[in-house]
C-alpha cells in the first residue's frame, strides 16, 4: 500500500512537472515580446541555464533513466532557445558566430546520444551542474539587484520554475539514488526561489514609487 502511494505521488509530480514544462517559459517570452525589451534578463544566467539543461538531459538519456524523470529538460531547453533569441535580438548580439556556436553545441549533444562520444565524459561534466545552477540563478538575482528593477523578468515563470525544481527534488528522492542528479534540483530550487523574492521585492518597490 505504501509503495503504491509513493508510486502515485511520484507519477503525479512527474506529470505535473512535464505539464508545466510545456508552458513554463512562455510568460517570460511573452513579456519580452510585448515590452520589446530584455531589461533585467541576465544573458550570462540564461546561457549557463541552457548549458546545464543540455548536460542534465543528455546525462539522463545516456544512462537510460525513465523519460518521465527528465522530459522537462528538452521542453524547457526549446523554450530557452526562443528566449535566448529574443534576448540576443534586443541586445543587438544576434551574430553569425553565435548561431554557429549553437549548431556546434547541438552536434556535440547528438554525438553523445548516438554513442560516438563515450558517456563516461558526462560523469565528469555532470559534477559541475549544481554549480552552474547556483551561478546561473544568482547571476539573475545580481542583475535584478544591480538594476534595482526586475525589468522584463517574469514572476510567473520563476514561480513555476521553483515548483518544478521542488517537485524534482521529491521525485529524485523517491526514484533515484543518484546524488549528482539530486543536487541539481536542490540548487535550482534555492536559486529560483531567490529570484522570486528579489523580483517581488523590486516590483513592489517600483509600484510604490509610481
Describe the SSE topology.
Elements: H1 2-21, H2 26-35, H3 43-62, H4 72-90, H5 96-113, H6 120-125, H7 129-147, H8 155-175, H9 179-209
Your description of this structure?
The mean pLDDT is 89. With 210 residues, this protein is mainly α. The chain has one domain. The chain is built from nine helices and no strands. The chain starts with a helix and ends with a helix. The longest helix has 31 residues, at 179-209. The protein has helices spanning 2-21, 26-35, 43-62, 72-90, 96-113, 120-125, 129-147, 155-175, 179-209.
Helix-and-strand structural type: mainly alpha
N- to C-terminal separation? Answer: 56 Å
Q: Provide the number of structural domains.
A: 1
Characterize the biggest β-sheet: none
**Percent range for helical residues?**
over 70%
Characterize the overall form: globular
Stretches where pLDDT is under 50 for at least 5 consecutive residues are: none
Radius of gyration: 18 Å
- How large is the count of helical segments? 9
Please tally the β strands and state the result.
0
Q: What fraction of the residues are assigned to beta strands by DSSP?
A: under 5%
> SSE order in H/E notation?
HHHHHHHHH
Give the averaged pLDDT, no decimals: 89
Amino acid at each position: 500500500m505504501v509503495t503504491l502511494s509513493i508510486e502515485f505521488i511520484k507519477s503525479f509530480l512527474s506529470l505535473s512537472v512535464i505539464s508545466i514544462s510545456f508552458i513554463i517559459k512562455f510568460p517570460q517570452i511573452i513579456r519580452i515580446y510585448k515590452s520589446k525589451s530584455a531589461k533585467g534578463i541576465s544573458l550570462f544566467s540564461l546561457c549557463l541555464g541552457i548549458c546545464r539543461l543540455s548536460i542534465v538531459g543528455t546525462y539522463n538519456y545516456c544512462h537510460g533513466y525513465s523519460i518521465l524523470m527528465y522530459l522537462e529538460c528538452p521542453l524547457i531547453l526549446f523554450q530557452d532557445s526562443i528566449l535566448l533569441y529574443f534576448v540576443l535580438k534586443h541586445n543587438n548580439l544576434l551574430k553569425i558566430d553565435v548561431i554557429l556556436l549553437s549548431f556546434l553545441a547541438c552536434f556535440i549533444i547528438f554525438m553523445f546520444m548516438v554513442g560516438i562520444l563515450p558517456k563516461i565524459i558526462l560523469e565528469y561534466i555532470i559534477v559541475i551542474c549544481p554549480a552552474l545552477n547556483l551561478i546561473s540563478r544568482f547571476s539573475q538575482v545580481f542583475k535584478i539587484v544591480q538594476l534595482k528593477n526586475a525589468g522584463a523578468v517574469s514572476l510567473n515563470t520563476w514561480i513555476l520554475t521553483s515548483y518544478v525544481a521542488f517537485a524534482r527534488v521529491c521525485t529524485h528522492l523517491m526514484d533515484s539514488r543518484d546524488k549528482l542528479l539530486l543536487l541539481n534540483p536542490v540548487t535550482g530550487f534555492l536559486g529560483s526561489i531567490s529570484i522570486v523574492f528579489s523580483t517581488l521585492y523590486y516590483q513592489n518597490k517600483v509600484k510604490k514609487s509610481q
